[in-house]
């Protein structure tokens, strides 16, 4: 892990209520997948190409992955994250503790809205309208959560509700209810995605795809992109590390739409490995929460700055291009 990210993590752990730290840090079950997401990067090595004479791209192929409840990490919550994002795309969680309109108003770059399709499609449509009115540039439909993951740390702490004064603000005043709970539903299907397609012209992404055939189905249903993700090891403790699932999805999609990877990205080198395996960009989840908890907006900015700096350095070392033939197993 990049040492600045490690420092921010340690500071976050020191300042956070241990219950909230465990909510952010924890995974599902025995946390096998949580650990494997990071370990998968250590199993791979890069063979740099030499004498290519390429300049170095200034782009940072990073998105901020959607994570819930930023005001548990810092009083400014999602406003601080949005301000820190700069030109980096912020995928704002439906479970944000600041309403999406305020998140977008605080951001200077693109904001995408992450959506859990609600079984009541009127509620889902109202959320989509909220995101559109706020000025979100895309919808990211999370599809890996037919039911809530069982997080043993939260169960042990009895952590089920936000503290008084905090709420999932996007769920306020929907369909005549003061504050709705976010529902997960195993009845959600591709048909719901098609219905979303009918109610909005926003580009639709799906997040949480691991099986290559689901990626093919997603392309067939007209998605703008696919996020290979196991929800940061928070849903099913039997799945592969995101990085290990990436190549087959990239092959199945065959360049028709961009493929983003999230899970376990902790350094510029990790970004380079994911790109070499065919990702167009990576998403980062927990490092942003650690930066936010440690130092608010400045902490999140530091996370992005250090990843940008490290990624550019690795890219220069690799000859400015990253392709799959450059990835080998570390024996
Ligand atoms: C505390 C926490 C809350 C999360 N909340 C959401 C969410 O509201 N919606 C969603 O689609 N994914 C959510 N995720 C998953 C992230 O979007 C992302 O897939 C994951 O964090 C990436 O792994 P990383 O934390 O190792 O970078 C959450 C993850 C964490 C750690
Ligand atoms: C509100 C929760 C459903 C957010 C989430 O996706 C998570 O904690 O992993």
UniProtKB/TrEMBL annotation:
Coiled coil: none annotated. One of its GO terms (molecular function) is oxidoreductase activity. This is Alpha-hydroxy acid oxidase. The lineage of its organism: Bacteria, Bacillati, Actinomycetota, Actinomycetes, Pseudonocardiales. Keywords: Oxidoreductase. The keyword Oxidoreductase applies. The keyword tRNA-binding does not apply. Pfam families: FMN_dh. Residues 1-331 form the FMN hydroxy acid dehydrogenase domain. Its EC number is 1.-.-.-. Its cofactor is FMN. PROSITE patterns: FMN_HYDROXY_ACID_DH_1, FMN_HYDROXY_ACID_DH_2. Belongs to the FMN-dependent alpha-hydroxy acid dehydrogenase family. Signal peptide: none annotated.
């Amino acid at each position: 892990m990049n040492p600045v990210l490690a420092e921010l993590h340690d500071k976050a752990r020191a300042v956070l209520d241990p219950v909230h730290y465990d909510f952010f840090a924890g995974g599902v079950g025995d946390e096998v997948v949580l650990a494997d997401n990071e370990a998968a990067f250590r199993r791979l090595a890069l063979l740099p190409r030499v004498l290519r004479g390429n300049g170095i791209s200034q782009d940072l192929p990073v998105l901020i992955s959607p994570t819930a409840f930023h005001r548990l990490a810092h009083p400014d919550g999602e406003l601080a994250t949005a301000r820190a994002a700069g030109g980096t795309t912020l995928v704002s969680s439906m479970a944000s503790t600041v309403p999406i309109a305020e998140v977008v108003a605080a951001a200077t770059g693109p904001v995408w809205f992450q959506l859990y399709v609600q079984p009541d499609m009127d509620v889902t449509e109202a959320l989509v309208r909220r995101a559109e009115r706020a000025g979100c540039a895309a919808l990211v439909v999370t599809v890996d959560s037919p039911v809530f993951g069982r997080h043993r740390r939260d169960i042990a702490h009895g952590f089920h509700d936000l503290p008084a004064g905090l709420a999932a603000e996007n769920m306020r005043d929907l369909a005549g209810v003061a504050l709705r709970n976010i529902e997960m539903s195993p009845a959600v299907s591709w048909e719901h995605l098609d219905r979303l397609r009918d109610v909005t012209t926003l580009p639709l992404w799906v997040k949480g795809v691991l099986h290559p055939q689901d990626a093919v189905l997603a392309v067939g249903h007209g998605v703008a992109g696919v996020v290979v993700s196991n929800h940061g090891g928070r849903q099913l403790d039997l799945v592969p590390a995101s990085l290990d699932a990436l190549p087959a999805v990239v092959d199945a999609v065959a360049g028709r739409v961009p493929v983003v990877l999230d899970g376990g990205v902790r350094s510029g080198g990790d970004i380079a490995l994911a790109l070499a395996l065919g990702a167009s960009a990576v998403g980062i989840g927990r490092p942003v929460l650690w930066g936010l908890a440690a130092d608010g907006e400045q902490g999140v900015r530091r996370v992005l700055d250090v990843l940008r700096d490290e990624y550019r350095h690795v890219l220069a070392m690799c000859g400015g291009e990253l392709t799959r033939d450059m990835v080998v197993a570390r024996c």
